[in-house]
Write a structure and sequence with these properties.
Elements: H1 8-11, H2 15-30, H3 32-42, H4 49-64, H5 69-82, H6 90-103, H7 116-126, H8 128-136, E1 144-148, H9 154-161, E2 164-165, E3 171-173, E4 190-192, H10 199-203, E5 211-214, H11 221-228, E6 232-237, H12 240-253, E7 258-261, E8 273-279, H13 294-297, H14 300-318, E9 321-331, H15 340-349, E10 353-355, E11 376-378, E12 390-397
Parallel strand pairs: 5-6, 5-8, 6-7, 8-9
Antiparallel strand pairs: 1-3, 1-4, 2-3, 9-12, 10-12, 11-12
Helix pairs in contact: 2-4, 3-4, 4-5, 4-6, 5-6, 7-8
The structure holds S-adenosylmethionine.
């Protein structure tokens, strides 16, 4: 989606049209499950892909943007007429959208906001009412969360930004958009980071002067938190362009960290660290508020592949922890194979490590997220206004 919004055609639009185009795409993605159900009931056979896209945008305008029904239909028909491939389907677009408009909006069932197979997994993992509550967040437009560089600056920043201070110290601002112009940006007093994403680094409990390895570090929100806590941070990531973003934010905030572009599994350096944070690559299903397309591009096989990568990265991370040190593992995924199952399998593979249970409220974690095993299972509805879904586990390495 970001690629589509990065084209010359998009850039050539007026600021107002760009805003509308972005809102239209986001609503169509947030409501895709409901939109495709409505279309399935009204389409006798599958139309070419571009026709389906025009219909999806048309339905999104009919029910979830302030577009009058006639304008939603007329602009969709005009769009179909303007594209060679869809020209022959103008009458179909007109008939289907008029019919759906007459039928009215779909029933408000959160289960229909997610792909059926993913919703079934969430129901199996968390139960029906939790699955419904978490899926209902898919439809919601998220606020912007910020992490202050200095926690003592949170109240002043909240006032300047008209933001609220959340449990744990993140700031939440209803606005989105050109953050570079917001108070405190140029002075590096904060960076953008979802409230849930800010919790794992707090659970490292990094102390001034400690060495901390952030093993999948870019673009770097967690590395910045660790550096701000006074730790000596080594940030490894295999993506040099993503690490460049970390370097830029380090410069803006005046924080420092050693940045290393390397594959965490093969990094030849043998140093050991007081603490290691592994924010592993994952399906990112927990980030559906900002990236609703992740739900629709994911395939079941991806979960299996990423889970295998996560196990290998956990082993690589464990090898870097000093005796007596700690390891925090996290993923922004809602899938138990990437969370609870990884933590349990890790303990079976590594006698030298024991679970270091996360306590209620620690790091700003909502009480609802703490599991019986002492892991943190954050679901998007655990915070009013929503938060990313995350799994966090903390382990301690025994002293030799
Ligand atoms: C979930 S993101 C990390 C986000 C980051 N911790 C933050 O707070 O901004 C996962 C990162 O893992 C990196 N990655 C994936 N496989 C890797 C590997 N084998 N070695 C090092 N980095 C890897 C990706 O480039 C990506 O930046």
């Amino acid at each position: 989606m970001e690629t589509a919004l990065d084209t010359a055609g998009f850039a050539a639009l007026s600021a107002q049209d760009r805003g509308f185009a972005r809102a239209l795409v986001m609503v169509a993605l947030r409501r895709l499950g409901q939109i495709d159900r409505l279309l399935a009931a009204r389409l006798e056979r599958e139309p070419p892909e571009p026709v389906r896209m025009i219909l999806r945008l048309g339905v999104a305008q009919l029910f979830w943007l302030d577009t009058p029904a006639y304008a939603a239909v007329d602009s969709s028909v005009a769009l179909a007429g303007a594209i060679r491939e869809t020209r022959g389907f103008k009458a179909l677009v007109n008939a289907v959208l008029r019919r759906i408009g007459r039928d009215g909006p779909p029933a408000n069932d959160p289960a229909t906001l997610a792909p059926g197979w993913l919703y079934a997994r969430w129901r199996a993992a968390y139960g029906e009412s939790e699955a419904k509550a978490l899926a209902s967040v898919i439809a919601e437009e998220p606020a912007t969360d910020l992490t202050p560089r200095d926690s003592a600056d949170a109240a002043a920043l909240a006032e300047a930004l008209e933001a609220t201070v959340l449990q744990g110290g993140s700031l939440r601002r209803a606005e989105r958009g050109r953050i570079e112009a917001w108070p405190g940006f140029a002075e590096g007093r904060w960076w953008v980071q979802d409230a849930a994403a800010a919790i794992p680094a707090r659970l490292v409990e990094a102390k001034s002067g400690e060495t901390v390895l952030d093993l999948c570090a870019a673009p770097g929100g967690k590395a910045l938190q660790l550096a701000a806590a006074g730790a000596s941070v080594t940030a490894v990531d295999r993506s040099a362009p993503r690490l460049k973003r970390l370097a830029e934010t380090l410069e803006r905030t005046g924080l420092s960290a050693e940045t290393i572009a390397a594959d965490a599994e093969k990094w030849p350096n043998r140093r050991l660290f007081d603490a290691v944070l592994l924010d592993a690559p994952c399906t990112a299903t927990g980030t559906f508020r900002r990236n609703p397309d992740v739900l629709w591009t994911l395939r079941p096989g991806d979960i299996v592949k990423l889970a295998a990568t996560q196990s290998r990265l956990m082993d690589a991370a464990a090898a870097r922890v000093k005796p007596g040190g700690r390891l925090v593992y996290c993923v922004c995924s809602l899938e138990p194979e990437e969370g609870e199952a990884q933590a349990a399998a890790f303990l079976k593979r590594h006698d030298a490590f024991a679970a270091d249970p996360i306590r209620e409220g620690e790091g700003g974690a909502p009480a609802a997220g703490v599991t019986r095993d002492g892991w943190l299972r954050l679901l998007p509805h655990h915070l009013s206004g929503g938060m990313d879904g995350f799994f966090v586990a903390r382990f301690g390495r025994r002293r030799d």
